[in-house]
Amino acid sequence: MSGSPLPHLTFATPRKLPKASTVPGRVAVLDIAFAADGTGHSFDKVTRPFLDGLGERLAVWVDHHDHELHARYAGDPRFVLATKAVHGACPEMITPALVARIGRVDSVVCHTDLDGLYSAARWILGGKDPYPGAEADARAVDTRIGEPSPRGAEIDRALRVKGRDEAFLGRVVRLLVGHDDGSTAEEVRYAAREYTEVERTTRALADARYAAHGDVVVCDVSDVPPRDFDKTDLLLHGQTRAKVSIVLDAQNVTLAAAFDSGINFLALLGVSGGMPTRVSVPRTRLPDVRRALADALLWRD
Description:
This protein folds into 2 domains: 8-191; 210-295, Rossmann fold, CATH 3.40.50. Helix content is 38%, strand content 15%. It has helices spanning 43-54, 96-102, 114-124, 134-143, 150-162, 166-177, 184-209, 231-239, 265-269, 286-295; strands at residues 8-12, 27-30, 58-63, 79-81, 107-111, 211-213, 216-220, 244-248, 252-256, 278-282. The strands form 2 sheets. It has a 5-stranded parallel sheet with strand order 1-5-2-3-4, with helices on one face. Strands 6-7-8-9-10 form a 5-stranded mixed sheet, with helices on both faces. Strand 7, helix 8 (231-239) and strand 8 (244-248) form a beta-alpha-beta unit. The model has no long low-confidence stretch (mean pLDDT 93).
């Protein structure tokens, strides 16, 4: 693999996609959910313009995040879409048969987390794992069920510190596919160690700030810089305390519950698209959130 050219790599999130004109050639989009309406970054404002801009240059879109608009693309073989209950992580969807069917791509657009980077690596490697157990690591990290291997855990921790550094993300993908110059592994180790402070702050916030309201716990971190804590882990700490955990930051209300909880925040809050068990809405909707959870007999003062 070391002598083969890599596709152009672009890193994105469901809420922040690149301009299609900046992504050359035939394009594979991996582990990027269709945008949800909760915080104003809707499908029509974010996802659709990117799709329209790519047009026939879109080779494949592979994703495993729930969205009501998946059905719209069920007849288009370029869209390989599932729910998280069916595929806990995206790399397992990227098989040798799929890569062979789609053929050559010039660009890969992938999510900025471990699941996304592992998806990109697996695509580049023809649908094969970059190392034994990588698929299982992606599933453990993305579902928070089970423990990843030491290698997977180290990369995940590093990405939680440097996940916005696109140059670093590119180096991690090159490391995974065997194109590294030898320095990235040490950079990953250093960043993973740096995450320890973020982890410590997250635990302290969970211990000090979660307030119970029946089957709901709420943690207000409006005064804490976002980079100082890990919101996903903070929500998970909350879920060990109650059925529903809520994190309030300066802009948003984020709700989370277990996959098998039977709770559908989309229906409760009237939000279109996205994961039923994790939703973000503007902070101004906090009264609506409280009322909806109270009506569902979850919130009790």
